[in-house]
Structure formats: C-alpha cells, structure tokens
Design a protein that fits this description.
Its main location: membrane. It comes from Aspergillus ochraceoroseus. It is a multi-pass membrane protein. By secondary structure, this protein is mostly helical. The protein has a single domain, classed as Amino acid/polyamine transporter I, CATH 1.20.1740. Helix content is about 70%, strand content about 0%. α2 runs antiparallel to α14, α2 crosses α16 and α4 runs parallel beside α7. The protein is globular, with a radius of gyration of 22 Å. It starts with a helix and ends with a helix.
Length: about 425
C-alpha cells in the first residue's frame, strides 16, 4: 500500500491505496481460509484412507476447519514468542520432508516415460482447445506461488527491513521453487495409474500416489501427515502475517471501526483484535462449506486473482514511471537495468493469470462446476467503490507512516 502511495499519480493516489489495501486484505483473508480448508480436507482424506466405511460430510470439514483455525489462533496469541523458532522448524522440515518423500517414491514407484512427463497432454476438462486446458492447469501452480510477499507484512517487526525483506523474498522463491519443481517431476515420473490417482476417494491425488507406491495405509498416512503438519505451520504463519496486514490497514483508517482493530494489546504485545478478526472471519467463511463446497471454492479461488491484482497495481505504476523517465526513490535493493523488463514480464504474466483464474475448469458448465470467483470479485469491487464514496474518501488518507516520512523529507528540503 505504501509503495502504491509513492508511485501513484497524485490525483488518484489515496483512492488507489484504498482499493489496493482492501483487495490485499480480502485476498489474504481468502488465503487464510483456503489453507485452513486444505489442511482440514487433508485430515478428512486420511480418515477416508484409514476408514473406508467413513461417510464424509461437509459439516465435518467445517468442524475440522474450526479446529485448525483455533489452533493457529492459540499459537498466535499464547505462543507468539516461539513463532520464529516454529518458522525455522518449518523451513528445515521443507528440506527434510522433501528427502523423506522423494526417496521412497523413486525407489518403489512404477516409472512413467519421459514422453508422458514432458510431451503428453491430458485434457480431461472437456475443453476443445489443449492450449486453454494447459493454461487452466497452470492455476494450481500460480496458487502455490501466491503469498510469498507475506514477509512484507512483518516488516515493522524486522531489523533493517529494506535489505532483509527483499533478500527473504528472493530466497523463498529460489529455494521453494526449486524444490517444488523437482518434486513435481518426481510425482509425474512416479504417478502410476493416472485414472486411479485422479479419481481417488480421499480427494487428494497425492495420497493415492503414496498408497500406490508403498502399498501400506500406515506408511501413506505418515507420508501425508508430514505435508499436513507443514500446512499447520504454514497456517500459523499466515495468520500472523495477515493479522499484521489487517492491523496496519486499520491503523491507516481503512477498515470500519479502525480505531478498535488498530489497538495493540498491552498484555500480549500483539494486535490481538486484528488476530481475532482474521480468525473469526475464516470461521464464518467456513460455514459456507456446510451449504455448498462450490460456493466456498469460489471465495477461495479469489486468493490467486486478488493477490495478483494487488501485485499488479504497484508494478504497473512503477512501469509507467520508468517509461516516462520519472524519478523513483529506490531503496537499497533494486533490480538494476533489468528492472523494466522484469516489470513488463510481471504485468503480462499477472494479466494472464488473473484472466484464466476466472475460467471454469470443466465444460459443459453446470451449477456445480461453475467458477463463481469472477462474479464474486466484481461484487466485492462494487462494494469497495461504494464504501469509498460513503466512508473512505472522507476518512482515509493513505498509509500514515509513509505520509509522515514524506512530510519530513519536504520539511528538510
């Protein structure tokens, strides 16, 4: 938000940061709910694996979501001092679990051919165009690469954030991107019976792959639990990140009842009310799952589109400034001479992603498989503009810290 404030044209500067702030908060709240949903349904999948007679119900998944969210809430309030150690543990476990899972897959799984992995295309969504089918297949990958900017939300609690945060972002993409690419290749070479994997009763093809590989329910359970535990750790971190984002937006006057949610608790030394707001909102959204998993999925699909749009706003403004040769106040970390090319590529890829994330994954389109994320996002945008007209333009002045620094610079000049 502060970046958009410094890059946007003066006439639309405050409105732009208002819209970006709300879209970012909305996207990250959807991300919290989506991770909670994934962890809960993974637990359901393991129950189905171990007890085939179990008849899963949507309200079971909602109760599991509540349990996951309450655990994350407790960790963020009562164990906040060990969060850095917990994140260090999660980072180390990424590497350890990668090795633990890859070794049995490579040693025990049947082998796919290189042709299947690199050249064959499975179009099972009903689309006549393989190109469109391939683009829709990219959405799972792009979802996994959203949220890498979560460290930015914790920047006010980091020493020398101007140098440390960019380094963390690059290291995150480099390490996790490399591990994810290698793991994807391993899964494709070891996938076995594709039909069996895609139509597994557990709802998760990865569980079916593990079971095909080991032939053991217990071994499969242990292997999947390592991934689910990482999901727990990730959810704790995301709640911490989103609560700081929500608190910052409330501090700047963006939320309704901003003064209430901007308070830092004197006992726990955290934005307790913002943490409660994030967790309670996720619990409320989980109720949608009782009525319709499709409706909940529409909200969760907004994670990718909302976050990518929040990235595109400042990138587009920076690109515009670069093309117009306008001065930009860079920090100590820059992209150098490659900056403009990278910005243009980011805009093209971001527009590509936000376009296809709105497509239905299957045709013919029915009420069940319809992708409602587009109408929902449009409705949210209309509400945000209405909120700006009624409340925002008279109260919101943009990120306060940035305004204070800017005023101080003008005074020194």
């Amino acid at each position: 938000m502060a970046l958009a404030l410094s890059l946007a044209p003066p006439k639309i500067r405050v409105f732009t940061t208002w819209m970006q702030g709300w879209i970012t908060v909305f996207g990250w709240q959807a991300a919290v709910t989506s991770i909670c949903f994934l962890v809960a349904t993974q637990i359901q999948g393991l129950i189905i694996l171990n007890h085939p007679e179990y008849n899963p119900q949507r309200w079971h998944g909602t109760l599991l979501m509540w349990a996951v969210m309450l655990f994350s809430f407790s960790m963020n309030v009562f164990a906040v001092q060990i969060l850095p150690l917990l994140q260090l543990f999660g980072g180390l476990m990424h590497v350890v679990i990668f090795i633990v899972l890859v070794v049995p897959l490579v040693l025990l799984s049947p082998r796919s051919t290189a042709q299947f992995v690199f050249t064959d295309l499975l179009n099972q969504g009903g689309w006549s165009s393989d190109g469109v089918s391939w683009c829709l297949g990219m959405l799972t990958v792009t979802y996994c690469f959203t949220g890498f900017d979560g460290a930015i939300h914790m920047s006010e609690e980091v020493r020398n954030p101007a140098r440390v945060i960019p380094r963390i972002l690059i290291q995150t993409i480099a390490i996790n991107g490399t591990l994810a690419f290698v793991f994807t290749l391993v899964l494709l070479f070891c996938i076995g019976d594709v039909s069996n994997v895609l139509h597994t009763s557990t709802g998760f093809p990865i569980i079916a792959i593990f079971h095909q590989t080991t032939g053991s329910v217990r071994a499969t359970t242990v292997m999947q639990l390592t991934i689910t535990i990482l999901g727990f750790v990730s959810n704790i971190a995301v709640v911490a990140s989103v609560s700081r984002l929500t608190w910052a937006f409330a501090r700047d006057g963006g939320l309704p009842y901003s003064k209430f949610f901007a308070k830092v608790d004197g006992r726990y030394q955290i934005p307790f009310r913002a943490v409660c707001l994030v967790c309670f909102t996720a619990i409320l959204l989980s109720l949608i799952n009782i009525a319709s998993t499709t409706a909940l999925s529409a909200i969760l699909a907004l994670t990718t589109s909302s976050l990518f749009i929040s990235y595109l706003i400042p990138i587009f403004m920076m690109t515009w400034k670069r093309l117009r040769k306008e001065p930009i106040n860079f920090g100590p970390w820059t992209l150098g001479r490659w900056g403009l090319a990278i910005n243009i590529y980011a805009i093209v890829f971001g527009l590509f992603t936000t376009t296809f994330v709105l497509f239905p994954t299957e045709i013919p389109v029915t009420a069940t498989n319809m992708n409602y994320s587009g109408p929902v996002f449009l409705g949210v945008t209309i509400l945000l503009v209405f909120d700006w007209v009624v409340r925002g333009r008279g109260r919101y002045a943009g990120p306060l810290k940035e305004l204070i620094l800017h005023a101080g610079q003008q005074d020194r000049q």
